[in-house]
Amino acid sequence: MTVAAPTRTWTPAHPLDVQAVLRPLRRGPGDPALRLAADGAWLAANTPAGPGSLHLAVRAGRVEATAWGAGADHLLDSAPGLLGAHDDDTGFTAHHPVVAEVRRRKPGLRLGATGRVWDVLLAAILEQKVTGTEAHRTWAALARRFGTPVHGDLHAPPTPEAVLGIADWQWHKAGLDGARRRALIAAAQVAGRLERAVELRGVEGRLLLRRVPGIGVWTAAEVAQRAWGDPDAVSVGDFHIPHVVGYALVGKRLDDRGMLEVLAPYAGQRQRAVRYVEAAGLGKPRYGPRLSPKDFRAI
């Protein structure tokens, strides 16, 4: 006898744009752990109970969530938070026309929270100091080779135990250089303790993550934005974000220091302002050659 997958329905108390909320979790167009659709999304993830998959469908203003696998109940419990139900933008004021306009046009853009560190930490480490193309290629390779198939062609990312079992030649085949490999292994060795960052939140949560060798300000911020929806964790050290923020808000290229100065009026909500800037889709002028992806599998 086939047992029906558990399902729950949730009615958001606010406008909801599922794609906008979940997009920061997507690691390239071929991401085996997240698929976005016009009416919802498919997600594969690790949970305290084990891996599982989650289907979210928006119909008539309601979210219908269905889950499979050992982590099904956990994923259903966390679905509202994943979609920004606990995001609090009280006191946020738009200090720039671009931010005000996007906020007006996209009321459903909220800061979601996975409630778990490991999956987003794994992805953030893979994205350290490489192009998105390189990081996404390695993410997909690791998920399909060492992750857990959970539903259809969805794969949950590798668990910490799986990461610790990967041989050197397999890392190389996946296209991972030594620095990121060492950071991943160091994080996997203390992964259970790092989950406490979600409870600490804010600066304390980010500082806990940074105790791991190879995890710096940028990586901790990337995790904080996704694991607990940190509204103030700006990705200082990013190759693109300071320039995007600079051109959108003051019409010129900025470095990290300049970006933080421009974002100062948004203290406590600086990452929310950055999300609005990114959603504006203005980009930045492109001059000269673009950064070329490097394939570490050939080195």
UniProtKB/TrEMBL annotation:
Residues 126-285 form the HhH-GPD domain. One of its GO terms (biological process) is base-excision repair, AP site formation. Its EC number is 3.2.2.21. GO terms for cellular component: cytoplasm; protein-DNA complex. It is an enzyme of class 3 (hydrolase). It comes from the Bacteria. Keywords: DNA damage, DNA repair. It catalyses: Hydrolysis of alkylated DNA, releasing 3-methyladenine, 3-methylguanine, 7-methylguanine and 7-methyladenine. GO terms for molecular function: alkylated DNA binding; DNA-3-methyladenine glycosylase activity; DNA-7-methylguanine glycosylase activity. This is DNA-3-methyladenine glycosylase II. It comes from Actinokineospora bangkokensis.
